[in-house]
Amino acid sequence: MVTPAMPAVSFQNVSKTFPASRGDIHALSDVSFDIEQGEFFGLLGPNGAGKTTLISILAGLTRASRGHVLVHGKDVQSDYQAARRQLGVVPQELVFDPFFSVRESLKIQSGYFGIRGNAAWIDELLEGLGLADKAGANMRQLSGGMKRRVLIAQALVHKPPVIVLDEPTAGVDVELRQTLWKFISDLNKRMGSTVLLTTHYLEEAEALCGRIAMLKNGRVVALEATSELLSRASSNVLRFKTDQALPLDLNQLARVTGRVVQLPAHDALEVERLLARMRESGLTVQDVEIRKADLEDVFLDLMQGARGVPQVRGEGASA
Ligand SMILES: Nc1ncnc2c1ncn2[C@@H]1O[C@H](COP(=O)(O)OP(=O)(O)O)[C@@H](O)[C@H]1O
Ligand SMILES: [Mg+2]
């Protein structure tokens, strides 16, 4: 029955407008892309970019104003039950029922999908997510990080082929992050599960995701293999410290964090030009170094580009 070419998820011209007293909010504008079966796909974007809205539409919790979303060929609106069964969604917000134990809540969730005799898989989930010794604990007794693990177990209880995680590691400690990534990567590699992940941790996306879509103001501003995205960036970053204000032209290009200034540079010639410009303007600097650009640099480049700030290179990144 399953055609190999059928995408796991297909977003087709999805728009979402929220009516508001000060004029409509265009949360999503004509978003179209496919996620293939077995992909580990990253959806990145700053706060308010529309990531959660897109995932709510995918999960059938919010209705798109225009366009369609298909999960394994099933329309999330007109064929809700079938589409929902293919999906395991971990929401951004921690929502849980405080009256049940961890194991009970997983049994209830199984029942919701009409699954009985799910104990072996529930045990595997509890084990894999480091929840085994909390199985009998009441949900309200758990720390935020532990609740997050239960939410992930709940999303996976019906063995969905498509796993969707909306900022699952926001505000979560390093150890839990690593447990989660090991577990989800395993599902992706061993069971061929498709994973759609939104995250603020760009190094995480860089390490895990084969392809990345970047959203800005409800529009897709980049959609590429992670390696392509990285190679498209200015390859170097000139980094130094200073107590002085930068001249305007450099300031427009720079990323400034306290005393630390970072300037993107395409090649050695551009590094030289930047250094010359710094000397010329009488800037006193310390700890000058050149490092290789990473995904965060690409991201910030793209987000700045979308704001209309001049790019380091002559033509814009999206030309
Ligand atoms: N229920 C809603 N009502 C009105 N505006 C909303 C609602 N949900 C989201 N928005 C707006 O839509 C935009 C996208 O939000 P969201 O999808 O949560 O972004 P992200 O998850 O990328 O931070 C924001 O401007 C947000 O304020
Ligand atoms: Mg969000």
UniProtKB/TrEMBL annotation:
Domain ABC transporter: 9-242
Alphabetized UniProt keyword annotations: ATP-binding, Cell membrane, Membrane, Nucleotide-binding, Transport
GO molecular function: ATP binding
Statement: the UniProt record of this protein carries the keyword Transferase: no
Pfam family, one: ABC_tran
InterPro entries registered for this protein in UniProt: AAA+_ATPase, ABC_transporter-like_ATP-bd, ABC_transporter-like_CS, ABC_transporter_ATP-binding, P-loop_NTPase
Protein name, UniProt field: ABC-2 type transport system ATP-binding protein
Record organism: Hydrogenophaga palleronii
